[in-house]
Specification:
Elements: E1 4-13, H1 19-30, H2 34-42, E2 46-51, H3 54-66, E3 69-77, E4 86-87, H4 88-104, E5 108-116, H5 130-136, E6 144-147, E7 152-158, H6 162-180, E8 185-193, H7 200-213, H8 245-252, H9 255-262, H10 266-273, H11 278-287, H12 294-304, H13 312-327, H14 331-345, H15 356-366, H16 372-380, H17 383-393, H18 407-414, H19 416-428, H20 443-461, H21 465-468, H22 474-480, H23 483-491, H24 493-506, H25 510-518, H26 522-532, H27 537-544, H28 556-573, H29 576-579, H30 591-600, H31 606-622, H32 624-630
Antiparallel strand pairs: 1-2, 1-3, 3-4, 5-7, 5-8, 6-7
Helix pairs in contact: 8-13, 11-12, 11-30, 14-25, 15-16, 15-19, 17-32, 18-19, 20-22, 20-28, 20-31, 22-27, 23-24, 23-26, 24-25, 26-27, 27-28, 28-30, 28-31
Length: about 625
C-alpha cells in the first residue's frame, strides 16, 4: 500500500538570508543536528524534512522562505513494503524498467548503494540532484541511475544477471571513489529481477538485506522471508539513534508511560517538552484528551516558547520515566512484538477478504455512472442479501405503512445511496463472523458498535457539505474502523487479554495500550486491510487515523468525524453509574480531533456536543430492530 508523504528539499540561500535565525529554526523547530545543518547549507541540494501532510510541509516551507532559504516539495511514497521512502517519479521509472524486462524476457539487477564518510568533518554531496546526473554519465545508456536520498543510490543494470553483477558492482565502486574520493565508505547490495524477486518492493527489500549483510553473492529465496517494515500511525522522519533519552520520552511514550507524563503539573511537563522540537511538541499536544486542563496551558506555552531552566529535580523526574520506558515492555520488546504482528499481516492468505457481494456493491458506488438498475441487479442475484434487506426495510426502524416487496421498490422509496449503504453493511458483516473469545471479545458486539458508529458518522457527515454526496463515506469508514481489533484478538489473544486488564487497571484507552504492546494499533491494521481491499484513500485514511487525525497524510476531516462518532457511541451508551467511573478502554476525543472538528462544525462546544450525544443515542435505539433482523 502506498502512502504519499512530502519531502522538503533545500536548494540554496538568498544573499540576504538570516543565517542565525535560520540555524535556530532548524535546531529548535526541526531538531536538526549542527553537523547536518552545516552539510546542508554548504552543499545543496539536501533533504531537510519529511511530513505526512502537504499543509504542514507548506507551513515549514513558508517559514524558511521568509528567512531567505529556498526549498521545493517532492511527493514521496512510503510504501509499507519499502525499507525507506522513494519519490513518486523514481517509483514510476523503476516500474517501467521492470515492465520492459518482462517484455524482452531478460534479467535486471538492482544495486542498492549507500555512501558515507570516514571523517565527521568531511562532506560528500547528496545523491540527489546534480550528482545523480554526473554519476549516470559513467554508465551505459540502458542502465538507470536514481538518487534516492542524501546517502542512497539505486542503479538498475539492464540485461544484467547474477553472473554479470560482479563486474557492474566493481564499476560502481570505482566510479564512486573516483567522484567522491578513495576514503568514502561504500556498501552495496543487489537482487535480480525476475530470478530472485518478482515485485519492486521485494527486489528493493532483498537488495537492502543483502547490503546490510555485506554478502556479494546474492540471496537465495529460501534464505530470508520477505518481511517489510510497516510504519505506525505517527510516522516521523527522526533518526531514533540520534534522539536523546528525553526526546524519546516524548516521542515514543505510549500507554502507562504517557499517562505518567500527563499526571505532571504543566510547569514540570514544559521543562521536558521544551527540550524537543516544536513539531514534536505539537504532536504531543494533539494526543491529549480535548478536555484535559493541560491543553489550554500547553497550547499557550508552545505558541509562546518561554525560556525554561531544567533543574535537578525535574531532571530526576524525567530520568525515572525514561527508566520506566526501558523496563516496562521496553522499546526493544515492543519492536519484537511488532515484527511478529507484521509478519502475520504479510501472510496474505491469512488475511480476511471482503465478501464478493460487498466488493460488487463497492464497485457500483465507486462508479459515477452507475444507476439504480445496476445496484438492484447485484442485490437480487444474491437471495440471502435480498431477503435481509427487505426484512430491514420492512422493519419498525423505517416504519413504512405498506409492505415493500421488491428491491426495486426499496430503491425507489429509500433512494440508491441509502440502499447502497445498507447493502454494503449487510454484506460486509460477514467479515465479523469469527470465533468469540470468552471474557475478552464478542464479534457481534464489535459489529453492532461498528454499524452504529457508521450510522452516527453518516449523520455527522450530513452536516458537512463535502461529505453529503460521497457514496460509502462516513458510514463505510465507521463500519470498518475497528476491524483491526478482530485480527489482534484472534491472532494474539493472550497479549490482548493483558491489554484489557491493563486498561481496567490504569484507566487508559485501548489504542494507546495496543501501541505500547504491539508498536501499532488496530487502526493501522484496518488501514492495511482497507488497502488490500482497494478501498479509496479517503476511506483508508479515515480508518487508519480515526484515533489520531493529526497524523493523516490527507482526509484528516473524515478521520476526525469517525473518531467523533466512535466517541459519541460510548458516551451515549454509558449509564450515569458508568459515567462516574473511569471510561475504561473507551476511545478518547483528543485535542487533535478537536482542532479539526472545530473547523468543520461551527460553534462546536459543550451544548452542541450534548446535542450530538442525544442524536447518537436516538440512532442507536432506532437501530436495534434492524440489527436483530440481520443477526
Amino acid at each position: 500500500m502506498n502512502d504519499t508523504r512530502f519531502r522538503l528539499i533545500f536548494k540554496g540561500l538568498e544573499q540576504s538570508a538570516q543565517l542565525q535565525k535560520l540555524v535556530a529554526f532548524f535546531q529548535k523547530e526541526l531538531g536538526l543536528s549542527g553537523d547536518r545543518i552545516r552539510n546542508m547549507l554548504t552543499n545543496p541540494p539536501r533533504i531537510i524534512w519529511e511530513v505526512s501532510a502537504r499543509n504542514h510541509a507548506e507551513l515549514i516551507q513558508n517559514a524558511l522562505e521568509n528567512l531567505g532559504c529556498h526549498t521545493y516539495l517532492e511527493p514521496v511514497i512510503a510504501n509499507l513494503s519499502y525499507p525507506f521512502v522513494i519519490s513518486e517519479k523514481h517509483q514510476n521509472v523503476m516500474d517501467r524498467e521492470l515492465s520492459k524486462i518482462l517484455r524482452c524476457r531478460c534479467n535486471l539487477a538492482l544495486f542498492l548503494v549507500q555512501v558515507a564518510t570516514n571523517e565527521p568533518q568531511s562532506i560528500i554531496p547528496s545523491m540527489i540532484g546534480p550528482f545523480e546526473k554526473e554519476l549516470a554519465e559513467h554508465f551505459r545508456l540502458s542502465d538507470t541511475v536514481l538518487g534516492i536520498d542524501d546517502s542512497r543510490i539505486i542503479i538498475l543494470g539492464f540485461s544484467t544477471g547474477k553472473e554479470g553483477s560482479g563486474t557492474l558492482q566493481n564499476k560502481i565502486n570505482c566510479v564512486l571513489r573516483e567522484l567522491l574520493g578513495q576514503d568514502v565508505l561504500i556498501s552495496i547490495g543487489f537482487s535480480v529481477f525476475p530470478e530472485k524477486a518478482r515485485s519492486l518492493p521485494k527486489l528493493i527489500y532483498l537488495a537492502e538485506v543483502n547490503r546490510k549483510k555485506g554478502d556479494d553473492s546474492g540471496l537465495r529465496d529460501t534464505e530470508i522471508a520477505f518481511s517489510p517494515q510497516v510504519p505506525t500511525p505517527c510516522i516521523s522522519t527522526r533518526d531514533e539513534a540520534r534522539l536523546n533519552p528525553l526526546q524519546l520520552c516524548f516521542t515514543e511514550a505510549r500507554g502507562k508511560v504517557l499517562k505518567r507524563l500527563l499526571d505532571m503539573d504543566p510547569q514540570t511537563l514544559w521543562l521536558g517538552l521544551s527540550q524537543v522540537p516544536r513539531a514534536e511538541q505539537k504532536k504531543f499536544l494533539a494526543r491529549l484528551p480535548f478536555d484535559s486542563p493541560l491543553v489550554p496551558v500547553l497550547e499557550e506555552t508552545i505558541n509562546a516558547q518561554p525560556q525554561s531552566v531544567f533543574d535537578k529535580t525535574a531532571e530526576q523526574h524525567f530520568e525515572a520515566i525514561i527508566h520506566q520506558m526501558q523496563l516496562e515492555e521496553g522499546l526493544e520488546k515492543r519492536k519484537e512484538i511488532q515484527e511478529e504482528v507484521l509478519s502475520r499481516l504479510n501472510r496474505v492468505e491469512a488475511l480476511p477478504t471482503l465478501p464478493s457481494i460487498a466488493a460488487q456493491v463497492f464497485k457500483i458506488a465507486s462508479n459515477p455512472n452507475s444507476s439504480a438498475a445496476d445496484l438492484t441487479k447485484v442485490i437480487v442475484n444474491d437471495p440471502p442479501l435480498t431477503s435481509k434487506i427487505l426484512k430491514v426495510v420492512n422493519s419498525a426502524f423505517y416504519g413504512f405503512p405498506q409492505k415493500i416487496g421488491t428491491v426495486k421498490q426499496a430503491v425507489v422509496v429509500l433512494g440508491i445511496d441509502e440502499i447502497m449503504d445498507l447493502a454494503f453493511g449487510v454484506a460486509a458483516s460477514k467479515v465479523f463472523e469469527v470465533t468469540r473469545l470468552e471474557g475478552l471479545f464478542d464479534p457481534k458486539a464489535v459489529w453492532h458498535h461498528s454499524m452504529c458508529t457508521g450510522l452516527i458518522a453518516q449523520n455527522l457527515c450530513q452536516r458537512v457539505p463535502e461529505y453529503q454526496k460521497k457514496k460509502l463515506g462516513g458510514f463505510t469508514a465507521g463500519l470498518l474502523h475497528d476491524f483491526g481489533k478482530i485480527f489482534l484478538a484472534q491472532g494474539f489473544p493472550e497479549i490482548y487479554g493483558h491489554i484489557h486488564v491493563d486498561g481496567t487497571k490504569h484507566e487508559l484507552p485501548l489504542f494507546e495500550l495496543e501501541e505500547e504492546r504491539f508498536g501499532l494499533n488496530h487502526a493501522v491494521i484496518g488501514k492495511l486491510l482497507a488497502s488490500k481491499w482497494n478501498l479509496p484513500q479517503y476511506l483508508v485514511q479515515a480508518i487508519a487515523f480515526h484515533h489520531q487525525p493529526f497524523s493523516a497524510s490527507s482526509h484528516s476531516e473524515l478521520a476526525a468525524i469517525i473518531g467523533l462518532a466512535d466517541y459519541l457511541y460510548y458516551e451515549a451508551t454509558m449509564s450515569e453509574e458508568q459515567r462516574g467511573e473511569a471510561p475504561v478502554l473507551f476511545p478518547q476525543l483528543t485535542f487533535g480531533h478537536w482542532s479539526v472538528l472545530t473547523q468543520l462544525f461551527t460553534g462546536l462546544g459543550t451544548e452542541q456536543m450534548e446535542k450530538m450525544k442525544d442524536d447518537a443515542l436516538a440512532i442507536i435505539k432506532e437501530s436495534q430492530d434492524p440489527f436483530e433482523i440481520i443477526d
